[in-house]
Amino acid sequence: MTEYQAFRVELKDKIAHVAINRPDKINAMNAAFWNEIVDIFQWVDDTDEVRVVVLSGEGKHFSAGIDLQLLAQAATQMGTDIGRNAERLRRQILKLQASFNAVDNCRKPVIAAIQGYCIGGAIDLIAACDMRYGTFDAQFSIKEIDMGMAADVGTLQRLPRIIGDGVMRELAYTGRTVDGKEAQAIGLINRAYPNQQALMDAVLALASDIAAKSPVAIRGTKEMIRYMRDHRVDDGLEYIATWNAAMLQSADLKVAMAAHIGKQKPDFAD
């Protein structure tokens, strides 16, 4: 496996475990983080052996969001020309957005396992994942509002589809902290667990269950769900008809049916 500065990546039993690995910095998102996450998810997309991703944070916290030193560095690059400053900032914001778009656009399901702080940019990150799970004592906050800015890396665009518009507005306008139990109640996470060990055990078991399914069927299902965020129902029905006209010819269908009839566990090719 490639060595990374901001991440630890492992592949075992078809599951890629991608862990933010800066526990001494509360897993704050430094320059290496933003560059490496794009490379990691490109590898995930390109590697057939990877069927599902578990995204976590090393140590006591998932992530405290963007590294403040990175913001300070960006501020020192500002000149006297407003137009050029705006252009430079816009390019930087679009680059950061592309890092989490890589997670969202990944063909494989991505499961976030969250403990401790999940603040600011970390909310943007988990909003780009397929599913989210956390501990009772996890702390979620759209913290950008308390820094005098609007969240700009995906939270305001993706979160309304996860928790609903009204709740999202409340959290975005106030920046208040939500614990794991409330996060489950509002749909921000699928389920909350009493501690980090129970969380990881449950998430890895879920990942294992998904990894055992037909990879063609899983990837097709994710693509259809993503497509429907921005299209009408009739568009989606047309797309799945065209998609499955090809994908139903996969050997996976025969393997699944034979296993079901024989009451055996199917073994799908990568």
What is the general shape? globular
Count, helices: 12
Overall pLDDT score: 95
How many individual β-strands? Answer: 9
Q: Name the structural class.
A: alpha/beta
How big a fraction of the residues is strand?
A: 5-15%
Residue share in helix:
40-55%
Computed Rg = 20 Å
List unreliable stretches of 5+ residues.
none
- Can you list the strand order of the major beta sheet? 1-2-3-4-6-9
What are the secondary-structure elements, in order, as H or E? EEHEHHEEHEEHHHEHEHHHH
Sheet having the most strands: 6 strands, mixed
Distance between the termini: 19 Å
Can you offer a commentary on this structure?
- Helix content is 50%, strand content 14%.
- The chain is an alpha/beta fold.
- The strands form two sheets. Strands 1-2-3-4-6-9 form a six-stranded mixed β-sheet, with helices on both faces. It has a three-stranded mixed β-sheet with strand order 5-7-8.
List keywords for this structure.
single chain, alpha/beta, 270 residues
Write a short abstract of this structure.
The protein is 50% helix and 14% strand. The protein is of the alpha/beta class and 270 residues long.
Topology:
Elements (H helix, E strand, L loop, with lengths): L6 E6 L2 E6 L10 H16 L5 E6 L10 H9 L5 H23 L5 E5 L2 E3 L1 H7 L3 E5 L3 E3 L13 H4 L1 H4 L1 H10 L3 E2 H7 L4 E3 L2 H16 L3 H13 L5 H15 L3 H11 L9
Helix pairs in contact: 1-3, 10-11
